[in-house]
Amino acid sequence: MMLKFIAKDIQFLKTTGHTPALTPPDIYYSDLLTQPSKEFEIFARRIADTCAAQKTFTTAAIQIDPATPEDAIDKANDIFHACFHSVLDENRGIWECLDPFTAIFVFWDYQTAAQGKKLLDLLNEKIAQALNTELIMGSIAFPVHNFPVEEMAGCALKALDHAAFFGPGHAIEFDGVSLNICGDRLFQLNDIDAAITEYEKGLSIAPANINLLNSLGVAFGVDGFLDKAMEFFEKARHINPEEVMVIHNIALIHRFNDKNDSAIAYLKKAHGINPDIFEIELLLGHLLFKEQKFDPAISHLDAAIRVKPESGTAFRIKGQILLERAEAASAAAQFNQAVKLNPNDPEALSGYARAMALQKKNLSIALSFAKKSLDLNPENEQYRQNLEEIQNIHDRIEETDQNSSIKSA
């Protein structure tokens, strides 16, 4: 069973923001492994038939820059054919178009890995020159580790997705990062078991890769296997004790196990390494609030707001702290911002309603917000109590006003 997070912003860290952001591809060609097109199915059968007896061969997926002029794309199929046969011949390889932009190739009959790389570079160069555009390429040379022939086409697609993060003009040879990216894609599609398989394959190639160890820990954590998740986070921390995403994730496991003191200790260590990571500041602020340590909690929540002002969660938690301090007007201002950013946050709606009611201001709006919070989460007893409290305040004031009117008359 997947864990229910305390807020959509408080979750496991997959990256820390230390490295420059790369742009994910619009199309993940590795999706063809779970939803194969007719073209890919044809090629997969051909490679299984033709390469089973080959001791070495290279598979490459090549994509034209999507910004290439349409007239060049229209002739891509012919160019792929001409360039493939100018470098090789029908007895040394096969190829297939996957779509108007992309083709997948396999070739053999070379003596050394260097010769295979030279042929691949020549093929890449000829296609780029003929189309007058840059290419994105992912490749894999068999044999690699203990991967079977049948997986080579898929590995080339995973390498192509990897290369696509860097954009046109980049070529990537399949590696553990390619599997991390494929696992992340499956994770994004909520296929956690398949993602775990990809991360484990990646670790079989690169057992000391911190991103893979962390990714596997995250997948197990989201799937509810907290002990297994901690095992991989600790392996990653052993490799690099200063990696903040891993330290944060260990803290989150402690938080899920209701060990808030341990969680806070790890988060403070992560904060000391990098004080500008939203998730760390938000979770630290949240846990310090739960421990009634309001001043340091607000300090970390303010840091979270500075890093990510478009998230309403930190504003909402600040509002809750200010309500605890009986500072209703200041709390209302924080809840107001939280509701603007997320109009369907039941906790912010209920808190805002209560803050207005305590000031005896805008009681009709307070009632509507309190009712909406309960509609969004009908099982929450605190929202129900807040609604009843606000309704009572509203009714008393209305009754007082009516009595005053009668006496005046």
TrEMBL record:
It comes from the Bacteria. It holds the Pfam family TPR_8. Keywords: Repeat, TPR repeat. Coiled coil: none annotated. Transmembrane segments: none annotated. PROSITE patterns: TPR. TPR repeats lie at residues 210-243, 278-311, 312-345. The keyword Phosphoprotein does not apply. The keyword Repeat applies. InterPro entries: TPR-like_helical_dom_sf (IPR011990), TPR_rpt (IPR019734), Ycf3/AcsC/BcsC/TPR_MFPF (IPR051685). PANTHER family: CELLULOSE SYNTHASE OPERON PROTEIN C, TPR REPEAT-CONTAINING PROTEIN MJ0798. This is Tetratricopeptide repeat protein. The lineage of its organism: Bacteria, Pseudomonadati, Thermodesulfobacteriota, Desulfobacteria, Desulfobacterales.
